[in-house]
Amino acid sequence: MKELRRPARLAPGARVAVVATSGPVPEERLQAGLDVLRGWDLDPVVGAHVLDRHGEFGYLAGTDADRAADFQRAWCDPAVDAVLCARGGYGVQRMIDLLDWEALRAAGPKVFVGFSDITVLHEAFANRLGLATLYGPMAAGVDFIKNGRAQEGLRATLFAPETVRTLASGGTPLVPGRARGVTLGGCLCLLAAELGTPHARPSASGGLLCLEDVGEETYRLDRYLTQLRRAGWLDGVQGVLLGSWEGCAGREEVRALLADRLGALGVPVAQDFGFGHCDGALTIPFGVAAELDADAGTLTLDRPALR
Q1: CB-based contact 46:25 (threshold 8 Å)
Q2: Is 212 part of the annotated catalytic residue set?
Q3: Nearest CA among 22, 16, 20 for reference residue 34
Q4: Active site residue: 22, 49, 116, 199, which one?
Q5: Residue 1: band (very low, low, confident or very high) from pLDDT cuts 50, 70, 90
Q6: Catalytic pick from 123, 194, 212, 216?
Q7: Fewest C-beta atoms under 10 Å: which of 33, 50, 123, 193?
Q8: What distance in Å separates the CA atoms of residue 291 and residue 5, rounded to the nearest whole number?
């Protein structure tokens, strides 16, 4: 697995587009998020359909075509320096095949931020565009609006990425050891759901795999991990970082499952890294070479996440 192209860091005055690729966006949360971005001296603009709600399926932010069009327009706008997803939920899988990937490639590298359902786009950006991305808080997310740690982590990554070269968990290792590789991953259920699609990479070989999820029963987590193992997708992975498991079963039950399904890989596994669906979530760069020290609970990037 090779390092991916890193987009340029943001500077004061940079224009950032906020789009809804998945679930419907509460207007008050969107406005609060835009205020945070303006407070960072950024110039946020929103997609035309960011506040839409699908007429038949209320879990979608507007139609697939409109969500795809907003994303395409934002990414291909030469005045836009970064695209931030408004929220997750569900919906990227329905719109991703409507994107013009040649046009996205021609637009050049830009900063892209999102997590949860946005895992699908992270995989596609890596596989189709060879572009590094940021798995981090979203513009209309409760954590981004109300949690200073989440805000500061993303802000530092966007403006001064050299200051966040080492990310620390503070947890004990599930499997001790050190490993080197290129970061990738996201929400476990989406990684399993993406298997066999044209946008997902064929395997995690050579990677430092970051995993998290939310609101899942233990048997479902078991099913996702077992599917990835049976498909050979985990063959050759160099190490694993575990984020949050908010709303899943008790900590010890989930820990036992993760040890059972990941321990046999024979690679270091670090837990409690605090990214994903949790308060004060870290921003994790994907597509960057790094070293994982599971004993110390640290991930050290070879280079800053952004140029």
Answers
A1: no
A2: yes
A3: 16
A4: 116
A5: confident
A6: 212
A7: 193
A8: 18
